[in-house]
Sequence to fold (784 residues):
Amino acid sequence: MLPAKVEVCVGEGPPSSDGEERASASWGSHRLLVWCHRGAKMLSLARSIRRSFTTDNAKVLSLALIILLLACHSASRYYSDSDSCQWLLSTGRFLENSVWQPDGCMMHNYSRWEASTCLGGKKVIFIGDSRIVGLFASFVNIIASKNFSLRHVDAFFTDNSSSVQVHFLWHPWTNNDMKKRLISLFNARIKPDALIIGAASWTIKDFHASAKALHQYKENLMSMSASLEGLAEHGEVYWHIQEPVRWSALNPGQKKITNEQIDLYNEAAVEVFKTGNSRIKLFGGSRQMGLQNISDIADGLHMAPRVRDLGAMVLMNSLCNKVIRPIDGSCCQNTPPLTFLQKMLLCVFVVTTLVFLLLNFLRKLPHQRPMVPDLESLEEKKPGAEAVCGALCRMGLIMVYFYLCDRADVFMKEQKSYSHSAFFVPLIIVFVLGLFCSESTKESRVLNREQTDEWKGWMQLVILIYHISGASAFIPVYMHVRVLVAAYLFQTGYGHFSFFWLKGDFGLYRVCQVLFRLNFLVLVLCAVMDRPYQFYYFVPLVTFWFMIIYIVLAMWPQIVQKKVSISALWYLGILLKLVGLVLLICLFAYSQGVFEITFTSWPLSKLFELNGNIQEWWFRWRLDRFAVVHGMVFAFLYLLLQKKQVLSETRGEALFSAKVSLPLLLLSGLCFITYSVWASNCQTKEQCNEIHPYMSVLPILAFILIRNIPGFARSVYSSFFAWFGQISLELFICQYHIFLAADTKGILVLIPRNPSLNILVSSFIFVCVAHEISLITKLLVQLF
Fold:
């Protein structure tokens, strides 16, 4: 049945048996007209929404979302009195690849060196039953590779290099013996820096799960609480919440230990220790892990080694995150104090905002007011000053958002966990969207502006999906994304070479303009986020290569298309410069000593050092060392062929003749397949990275030829990808702090417990912020 409205519009019902064919055709044509009319209305509505929903409206919406989310997260922290330590100790879930994810914060995987550094000279004591001894053994194994047999006796470990002491004291019942041991620890001259205590299963088993035993258990906990609180004044005290059991696997003597009994004993412990002023922390992380892995409990009582190891790592994070302050461990970390530079920037932001408000106020005053006698002269200067102050004011607000996302303890953060669906599903969606937004290019030459913007756009979207899905763990994807980074550098060489060839502008203004455009956002972030310049490795990389390109091309013979006569000697000079650049690159690449001497000397060391050394710069520079030269050589050959009128760049026509185009297309496809097969068969990243500088040019050139040889392909582009390509630099840099989190180690969580909605909201805000920063940078590069 069709809706009543449609039936009235058509004017007749379904066809009757009389004249069935004619009536059926009539009814079908009417129905088709109705649905076409509806489709036209929907299309018109979509176009109307598209026209009304501009970037300005999107930014207003994103600002409203930020304010709302900030208010919600702040209220949640204030009223629920929840912090990342509580999330770490009591909540969590398993992600892909058995990664444990506490709710709202990131857990760091401690190395032996980090654990020994944090616990150096400290004393950690475990007290309890056979479950606690397993946790003790896993904890010791983080500090040193030592395996303890899980026996029902006291055990002691001392690390001679760091003077860490870790003891296990066997007390399977919460009785007077345990109470006396706690009193002796409290009265001891050297009190433990951390105490992990817990017991219940033996009490349930030995007293046959009686109600009287449960009551006595609670009474004993209350009598021990004073000693535990006293120990908590000196160090950390954790009460171990009992994990579940797999009842079917228990031996007959343990059948009284049921999950119902475990829950009752846990509730008793929570009731005793979870009071308003108690310093005792409830450690329930391993219980959450056990609930999600009950089938892995082999003997029914003791957790699987994997769960014990994760529980020990939770404890290590709780004890050490405030000391070590790892980048990828946001649990139990407070907001760091503001540096002097951050305070100065905050003052500049406040002053700029006040000046901007003052200029707006003066602009609204009537000209004839006697209190502003020189308003006409002010009007001449007002637009520049107001534009600068307005841009700086907006930039300041954006930097506040950056700080709140990735430095302040306001929004949540989560760990990455790679799965094929997390990477390939959004990748397919993005490319489908891009294909639906095809338009004709304004020009049809090779690598025209729309095409290069499109190229940068889809590459940037792939890199964003790659980063947020943690796909670097999958070597084939890692190697293909490495090609995308090389392609960016290829475009750097191609673009700057082409500019200097066509414009011949080697002036200081051009240099300052490019340097400002590349570095403005990064320099601001270095100050706001308290990070060194090299931390944002891609910008130092493209800045370095721009200066190299400028120096090489500015030397005689300069590459200028407008030269009246260009001799063979001139071409030879250009080739010699390119060959000399390749030789210089090889010198630095194969002589790390020369590289280190060059870049560790002042002032270059201040630009290229990270964590006190240049290893990161050495790795990044060496990985794509030939990509820029490849782009320069391609630009030289292309512009030369264009000058000689060898290419056919008319719209719709193939770039070469059919005899040349078809073999080149087949060769390009073969290059793609060859590279993908090689990348998929690499065993380690180190092995792949050694060959990558020589192989990356093959898929890049193959893509350019496939994209440009067919005339129809060269004449269209995706406006969707091109839009993102215009802000690709801002997207790449901003992702560090407001799309990802913890300096790219994790994921920013604005909408908890809903990963899909969280990605949509954070992506929307992230793109709006990047677009606004792009506009601000373009404005300031003109004014400054």
